[in-house]
Amino acid sequence: MSVLDKLKNTMQKTMGRGKEEAGRRTGNPDLEAEGRKDRAAGGAKQVGEQAKDAAKDARRTFGS
């Protein structure tokens, strides 16, 4: 995973956490839900990038 992609995904998760907390404190369920969505999307992207890295490592290991 490139450092830039990792940083983007982490930032998306962090921003989502902030939105979720802001929504909770202000009683805004839409903002809270948007924060949960952003956190989930950032996490899913990170898992996808890790899977790509694992595939690259496997190709290098087995010489394909």
UniProtKB/TrEMBL annotation:
Residues 1-64 are annotated as: Disordered. It comes from the Bacteria. Residues 50-64 have a biased composition (Basic and acidic residues). It holds the Pfam family CsbD. Coiled coil: none annotated. Residues 5-57 form the CsbD-like domain. Belongs to the UPF0337 (CsbD) family. This is CsbD family protein. The lineage of its organism: Bacteria, Bacillati, Actinomycetota, Actinomycetes, Streptosporangiales.
